[in-house]
Amino acid sequence: LGAPPAAGLFPNTVQPRGDVGKTMAENYAPYILADQSPELQERKTDSDLIYIDEWTDEGTGAVKGNALDISYANLNTPNPENIFCQSGASGWTPLCRITINYEQHIQPIWEAVRAPIDDGEIPPSQFNSCVGCHTTNNGTRVPAAQLDLSSTLDANNQFASYRELLRADIEDILVGGATLPRQWTCNQLDGQGMLILDGMGNPVSAIGQPQPAAVPPSLNEAGARFNASVNFFDCLTSGNDCRQHLPATLPTLPTFIEDCTEPGVPEVTSPNRVNHNGLLSAEELRLIAEWLDIGAQYYNNPFDAPTP
């Protein structure tokens, strides 16, 4: 914060001294840190997010801020810090790095075992991981909110969850016990608007008109404070703004097709919103946010990627 206009003037703080022209951070070392020998002590750089309100004078009626301690050492999944960053290391050095690879650090969050919760379906089932609800279960169910967080490899040889989180997707439906992309079956018309018939006198169908990108992405690689990412974090915090996916309506179709139908019945997944507050820890949310803020790379360290 700003420097005092006169020595010792930091309003509403317990600090009675201070050098004119120096900020609170600059005055902290000589006037608040207890150990002043053998040389001036200063705050040390740390990869943990730690905050203790050492300044507020509650005698003035002001209230101290809540303490904060968010350390990657508290994760139950792999720690993204190298040994130069981790708690207990011999102090921070310029070699300290936090490397976040999707497969190694983000996917384990979706698969971590947690306290069981109801999935919001009728009747409800209980699952003890994110991926328990958010999966096709080998193609036998529609994932909650149309979001598949499984580690199934896709055509790009990446986990399905990575693409589902960051890219718009075609809606899934359940047909005959199997999960399929939602698509329309429509009859073709000729230039005069008449049905085109095959040799048997049956209408010629244009099968597989896909519903285009009905499901928006859940995250944005532009950062944790951009577009979809904000909704994601609101869902997992006090806002509980979890997107409730509803089946898309029939899209605007070209003039040469009509009488469109679709196989199966589109499902409304999670008709009752599931309260996600507190399901992820502060450390997990921090990790996801930092991963987004550095571009949401699949491999933050390119040398960790497999040889093509």
Overview of this protein structure:
The chain is α+β, with helices and mostly antiparallel strands. It is 16% helix and 11% strand. The strands form 4 sheets. Strands 8-7-9 form a 3-stranded antiparallel beta sheet, with no helix packed on it. α2 runs antiparallel to α6 (282-293). It starts with 23 loop residues before the first helix and ends in a 15-residue tail after the last helix.
H/I helix tally: 6
What Rg, in angstroms, do the CA atoms define? 27 Å
Total DSSP E strands: 9
Termini separation? 50 Å
Q: How helical, in percent, are the residues?
A: 10-25%
Portion in strands: 5-15%
What distinguishing features does this structure have?
308 residues, alpha+beta, 3-stranded antiparallel beta sheet, two-stranded antiparallel sheet, 6 helices, 9 strands, elongated
Reconstruct the topology from this structure.
Elements: H1 24-31, E1 49-51, E2 68-70, H2 102-111, E3 117-118, E4 126-127, H3 130-133, H4 160-166, E5 172-175, E6 178-181, E7 183-188, E8 205-210, H5 227-235, E9 257-261, H6 282-293
Antiparallel strand pairs: 1-2, 3-4, 5-6, 7-8, 7-9
Helix pairs in contact: 2-6
